[in-house]
Amino acid sequence: MTYDPTGHLLLTPIDQEAPARVRRLRELGLGEQAEPVFDDFAHRLAEVTGAPYSMVNFIDENRQFFAGLHTPAGTHSGTDLGATAAGSGGVGRFMARDHGYCPHVVVRRKALVLEDVCDYPRFAGNPVVDEIGIRSYMGAPLIDRTGTALGTICVVDTDVRPWGRAGLETIKAMAAELVEQIHRREDGMI
Q1: Shortest CA distance to 1 belongs to which of 17, 22, 16?
Q2: N- or C-end of the chain: fewer Cβ atoms within 10 A?
Q3: What pLDDT digit, counting tens, does each position of 146-180 carry?
Q4: Which of 139, 144, 148 is nearest to 182 (CA)?
Q5: Read out DSSP for 99-148?
Q6: Are 155 and 46 spatial neighbours (Cβ–Cβ below 8 Å)?
Q7: Would you call 16 helix, strand, or coil by DSSP?
Q8: What is the DSSP code (8-state) at residue 61?
Q9: Rounded to an integer, what distance in angstroms lies between the CA atom of residue 11 and that of residue 1?
């Protein structure tokens, strides 16, 4: 586990399954390049939830890769999310593994809803709060037929959002839908 500089708050959980996940992502041909089908899915996820940002996120040992990305501007640069957000206001395809909340979702293997990240000391200290301005998060794991948590789908907002039970059920259902799409792809049906 990693801790903040004072040694008190858990920032990013240890991910024992990362090597197996990386192998499985390679088998599936996922996590290395942006794909229009995932961008389309992220766009639909943003529309359904009303969130300004949404991602299809595959996570390896060191970084997160947004194979699907929706932003308010509709742009998808190839740079680091933290660096671009702090510098030019853009959002990119890569983010350090210790930034954001998706690594928690993958390790927990359960959906996570944070209507106001500042209400949770464990999550309020995450770099995305100060560097990017994230105030609200909702994500669900993408667990495939082998039991591997490949990554997540998630939505974020710079404002507090009352996602509620309906939001939780929506993100879980959409994660299941995307996993089925990945299975059809693997089976050669797409």
Answers
A1: 16
A2: N
A3: 999 999 999 999 999 999 999 999 999 999 999 99
A4: 144
A5: SSSHHHHHHHTS-EEES-GGG-HHHHTSHHHHHT---EEEEEEEE-TTS-
A6: yes
A7: coil
A8: S
A9: 8
